[in-house]
TrEMBL record:
Protein name from the UniProt record: DUF3986 family protein
Record-linked Pfam families: DUF3986
Source organism per UniProt: Cytobacillus oceanisediminis
Length: 95
């Protein structure tokens, strides 16, 4: 684990609707109230469109976005992950 993160604080964020099964993981930075969300593109066979120099952690994937807050809850984290999946055309949100 990168020294940037406190390994005591992490949260799994999943999208399990419409026959989909995608999961990301959020890690809390040690020095600031920011949670970085990582997605393992390779594990899902999805092309990684993030900038080449974006932070990648072995076994966890590439940082896809960050949430500025001391704490995050599962529902708000999943909502933002779902939005990211939709914006990146990994899922289709209808209605």
């Amino acid at each position: 684990m990168d020294n940037l993160y406190d390994d005591k604080y992490h949260l799994h964020l999943g999208y399990y609707q419409d026959d989909c099964d995608y999961e990301s993981i959020a890690f809390k930075r040690k020095s600031e109230d920011i949670w970085d969300i990582f997605f393992d593109f390779k594990a899902y066979g999805i092309k990684n469109n993030t900038p080449e120099n974006e932070l990648t952690l072995n076994s966890y994937g590439t940082r896809i976005f960050s949430i500025r807050n001391k704490e995050i809850d599962y529902d708000s984290g999943v909502y933002q992950f779902k939005q990211w999946l939709s914006i990146n055309k990994i899922i289709l949100i209808v209605g």
